[in-house]
Amino acid sequence: MLNLDMITDSVSSLALLLCLFIPLFLFIFRFLSISTLFPSKTSTPCPQSYPIIGNLPGLLRNRHRFHDWVADMLSQTPSSTLRARTFLDLSHGICTANPTNVEHLLHSNFPNYIKGSRFHDVLTELLGDGIFKVDAHLWTLQRKIASHEFNTTSLKRFISDTVASEISDRLIPYLSAACEENRAIDLQDVLQRFTFDNICQVAFGVNPECLTSDNIYQNLPSSKFVKAFDYAVEISSSRFLSPLPLLWKLGRFLNIGSEKRYREAIKVIDQYAMEIIRSKEQGEVTRKCQDLLSRFMFSTLNVEFQDEVHKRKFLRDIIISFILAGRDTTSTALTWFFWLISGHPRCASLIHEELSSVPEKRSGIFSYEELKKMHYLHAALTESMRLFPPVPINSRLTVADDVLPDGTHVGKGWFADYSAYAMGRMDKVWGEQCREYRPERWLGEDGAFMPLDQFRFPVFHGGPRICLGKEMAYVQMKSVAAALMYEFEIVAIDGGGSADKMMNPPYMLSLLLKMRGGLPVRLRRRHL
User: How many structural domains compose the chain?
Assistant: First the structure.
């Protein structure tokens, strides 16, 4: 959630700009009726747009329900595609929920749609030259190294074993204590802390121990890193969503306000990461080392770097990128899953039946092989992400003029966004029951899970940049969901995601679809 200092910085700067431009705004609004009477002649619809201020009024009016606003507009267009104009007409772009267009962006014309300057400007301090921010040869090198590692059986087993250990040693005891005390907990917060511990263990081989009592956690060396990482992600998110990027860029240039604190947070992250890298350099890194950092260090032994400083920077960037990708996305997906399941008791019952069918089971810890056979749980998680994707909207920058399959013109330098959130609500894609939570839509007649076209379900992206950690994410989500639902009945205090509540879901506007106000729940121990 954006903190008070960040809001104050933005409001003060915006107030100054408004005072300077009052005469200009009076002139603009005098001619608003002309803009309405003579809309832009384009085959692709554009939301109500005004000179200079573009689509800003609509954005401000619908900020609290931004993704549903976008979904509503896209659903009313002939090809599920819109044009957009930003404040001061600084940039143009399109947003689509058309699977054919998404395939074109992510696969068919992949070289023409890059991360580009938009990602670089916002994420350069946090991710450096990490895989999720760069293009061209830097992306190709990191993708090649990471792809090899993520396809190894040993890494899959390591991830599965690490998750199982964290669940049995930390998560279940933590939740059991809350259950015995009949204490309400914020499940979103618990899952965020758990997944941060887990991804750091997988990425660094180090556990920051977030999921522990607060008085112990505050004194741990890793607490500064975790707080700095949280703040850096928060500021990065606010940068992306700023209607006037000039404001935060000015703050960065002057090194004031939230941008000054952001720079300080990055220093803490760099120091923590570099200390771990140097400590591993002092030991012997072999193929037997399981964490991602050790694996990448071994894989780059034959890669030429300018010097050791550049090599450490390369390792730091790629590892921080994977922590960012694997931390909040998984916890966000699980939060919405438990909210939906709490509001759909029939689905919860079917999941528990599937878990209980595993022979000779005495605990909620399931093996990798057992999890692979849980088709209904897999479908229930996938259906949850269809409706509430952890990354609700994604963006690319257009290299050269292009025409999308639906006839939409995309100009050079335009942003090209695709909304996974909106796509999950398109009856053209999912039928008239698209807004309903129905895990069965993912199951065949034999009850087996049936994966669908990645461009109809771009939650893990698609094409050459498809998420390498997809299987890792499913292992973690299924492990956590299975363990918690086997051991406890999870009761959302607000009643959960019933059909009525799904019409106005409580999300906050951020890069990730986090739940506004968290997910307060109570736990009841199951008597097996």
Answer: 1
